[in-house]
From TrEMBL:
One Gene Ontology cellular component annotation held by this UniProt entry: plasma membrane
Parts of the chain that traverse the membrane: 12-36, 48-69, 81-98, 138-160, 166-188, 215-241, 253-273, 285-316, 373-393
Species name: Furfurilactobacillus siliginis
Record-given protein name: Major facilitator superfamily protein
Keyword Secreted: no
Length: 406
């Protein structure tokens, strides 16, 4: 009972940590292109390119270093990795607010990515402690922390940027991560047992003892495609909103609201869909979420007002609640505790790669064609994801049937 109480306390503390991380990180992203536009007179193609690069570069460095941090976490514990991430982002976010030009901004976001990973390590710590029968609901609850932050972050950031300029949200991001560092240091307690030297000395694959390896790999690749789809609009969202508003009104605030709307739906739906996955199986929830997601992106191509865009963005948030938490649950159920940080770090790398691919593809599509074609590209990513997940489950079931018949 004591252990159960401690993982619940950790869940509460990490929920706060996820919330401030989500709020801080999302506080400036929706109007990052507007911030960049104040640093020079750039044509449309150059502005979209810089916006895509500034957004994606953080995730590129994150993708490279995440497996190294994950391997270290399985040896030293997840709490040190949480503190490394929160303190690192405290420093880099604050410095970003002082960026004198676009290249310093891009360089600082590159460094930030190398020291990020708070949310992923929060998942890994809770996954190593939560009872299996409660993993779906717990992962869904933890997701609401980050999503709740991502919900309020753009709205508050939009108002702050309008009143005080685009630099101030970065300073607030740094302050929020300092709060996250303190909460993690004082309230997260980890009963970590390091791997023996003989075990760590062996070059054992993290997937060596994973059940249903093909399905776990499908979840990792699915995370990449989900992230690519959901983040593809980020570099161009404020520019598209500005186009829909025809340059009139408070574009920063409207962009913040549009960016936050999916979070409202995800915040409400994630724990419920996570619990539903515990009852009917995560496979069904994931497939239904992918189908619904694809159906919601197509109408965005035809929107003519900010309100219409907001409605479909809200509905996409429901599908988000059925996607990433479910992939986390599947990995939790199939991964041994001594490899869970490594598996989750590979998943974080995949998500980070998705956060590079999606925005860069979107920047290219928007620069060559139009902002609207980004939504058609995103629909294609969702369809590829759906086919891959169906194939993985089908082949895994076929292999299991063949083994049972032998």
């Amino acid at each position: 009972m004591a252990k159960k109480e401690q993982w619940q306390k950790n869940l509460n503390a990490l929920w706060i940590g996820n919330f401030v991380t989500g709020a801080g990180a999302s506080m400036s992203l929706p109007f990052l292109p507007l911030f960049i536009s104040t640093m020079g007179h750039f044509p449309k193609w150059e502005l979209t390119l810089y916006a895509g690069l500034a957004f994606s570069i953080t995730f590129l460095s994150q993708a490279i270093v995440s497996p190294l941090w994950g391997k270290l976490a399985d040896r030293t514990g997840r709490k040190p990795m949480l503190l490394r991430a929160s303190i690192g982002m405290t420093i880099t976010a604050t410095l970003t607010g002082f960026s004198p030009n676009v290249w310093v901004l891009i360089g600082l976001r590159l460094i930030q990515g190398a020291f990020s990973g708070y949310i992923n390590n929060a998942y890994a710590l809770i996954a190593s402690e939560v009872p299996m029968e409660k993993s779906g609901k717990t992962m869904g609850t933890l997701t609401t922390g980050a999503v709740g932050g991502q919900l309020v972050g753009p709205i508050i950031g939009g108002y702050i940027a309008d009143l005080f300029g685009f630099r101030v949200p970065f300073f607030i991001f740094g302050a929020l991560m300092l709060i996250g560092s303190l909460v993690t240091f004082f309230y997260v307690k980890e009963d970590f047992k390091p791997l023996s030297s003989t075990k760590t000395g062996k070059a054992t694959s993290a997937f060596a003892n994973v059940k249903h390896v093909r399905v776990v790999w499908a979840m990792i690749l699915s995370s990449m495609l989900i992230q690519a789809a959901t983040t593809s609009i980020n570099p161009i969202i404020s520019l598209f909103v500005k186009e829909l508003m025809q340059g009139r009104g408070n574009v920063a605030v409207a962009s913040g609201v549009i960016a936050a709307l999916p979070g409202i739906a995800t915040l409400v739906a994630a724990p419920r869909l996570g619990a539903l996955g515990d009852h009917v199986g995560p496979q069904r929830v994931l497939i239904a979420g992918l189908i619904f997601c694809g159906l919601m992106f197509i109408p965005m191509f035809f929107v003519t007002t900010v309100v219409m865009l907001g409605v479909f963005r809200f509905l996409v948030g429901i599908s988000d609640a059925a996607l990433l938490p479910v992939t986390q649950t599947v990995m939790t159920l199939n991964t041994p505790e001594d490899a869970i940080s490594r598996i989750f770090s590979y998943n974080q790398s995949a998500q980070a790669i998705g956060s590079v691919i999606g925005p860069m593809l979107a920047a290219g599509v928007a620069g060559v064609l139009d902002y609207r074609y980004v939504f058609l590209m995103t629909t294609g990513l969702v369809l590829v994801n759906l086919v891959m997940v169906l194939w993985a489950y089908r082949t895994d079931n076929t292999d299991a049937t063949s083994l049972n018949n032998e």
